[in-house]
Prior knowledge:
- The complex is a heterodimer.
- Chain A is of the alpha+beta class.
- Chain A has 5 helices and 9 strands.
- In chain B, 35% of the residues lie in helices and 27% in strands.
- Chain B has 2 helices and 3 strands; from the N terminus they run βαβαβ.
- Chain B has a 3-stranded antiparallel sheet with strand order 2-1-3, covered by helices on one side.
Amino acid sequence: xxxxxxxxTGRKPRLLWHRETDLSGLDLIVIPGGFSFGDYLRAGAMAxxxxxxxxxxxxxxxxGYVLGACNGFQILTEARFLPxxxxxxxxxxxxxxxxHLRVERSDTAFTGHYQTGAVFRAxxxxxxxxxxxxxxxxxxxxxxxxVAFRYTTADGRLAPAANRNGSARxxxxxxxxxxxVLGLMPHAExxxxxxxxxxxxxxxxxxxxxxxxx
Amino acid sequence: MKAIxxxxxxxxxFDPEGKAIGRALAHLGFTNLGEVRAGKIVEVELAxxxxxxxxRTAEAMAEQxxxxxxxxxxxxxxx
Lengths: 214, 79
């Protein structure tokens, strides 16, 4: 994740410990993947209460940008920055493979360097990535244009085989109402260099960098 | 006092663990099973001496951390 951010911005990101509470001068807070607190109790449940989360909440309330990937998305839902929850994959298997994501809207800082409807490859690496929310919440997310990415086939169609963790409505990522907080389960940051097999994820970070320096 | 917090997935929340357990039970020969749901129990020793205060504390713990009330419900017993 740090490599992707540096590649897109030309600057090394500041690495913050979970007890840090001073986020002054920062435009974007990124909560990366991992296994915070060993995924004990529920993935992201305890990290959602780390001291830094209060500072991140204030940052978001001021209109700051937050990106949560994988465990970061789990933490954002546990901390109620975003609605819903991430459940155990429907297949019960840890998924470690490619997926394809369709960009649902390109008029956000995160997706501005993709076209709406564009499909790009990302990597799955999770055991609890099945997005769940009740019907009313799902309808609201869709009605308000807050679905960021959906799992699709390589040509952009919805299909059960393309949604291997069984996420509701094939939702892979969602925005906050002000479009400045994004949570997604797949790892776009793992495809930012030809040497690892592709740069499909780079536009997410380049778009962000462009939007934040405008 | 000991608070015993039982956390279960809410009805309507897909529970793949429960389903996998049900299949394993069927393989063991336990037939005619209905739904199987799996949850967790967290026991917390509390300094409180008043069971009602202990219950309120345990419920607050469950609301804030032990259960994710989007997808889980909980019950508290005090021993």
